[in-house]
User: Fold this.
Amino acid sequence: MVVGMCRVLLFLTEQPNSLKGKRSVINRLRQRLSSRYPVAIAEVGRQDVWQEAEIGFAVVNEKESLVREMIQKILEELERDYPVEIEEKAVDFQPF
Assistant:
């Protein structure tokens, strides 16, 4: 079994006017990704900054190739379908 973990620093291009607006964007993003992919996702940092968010997500599967593919699909969807730009990302794979 392989666990793939990804930490992503996002810049919100929609520029929410408050932390409440930012959380609304992040919650929609989390809910939609969780419903589309078998992934655990959470906001893990930058919670007091309006224009930035830091999220982390994890994928577990028997095959590392499937874990890598899933993480890549999620990153591509983030850039394509959400009002965010990926500023930084870190990916790690661990056998379990």
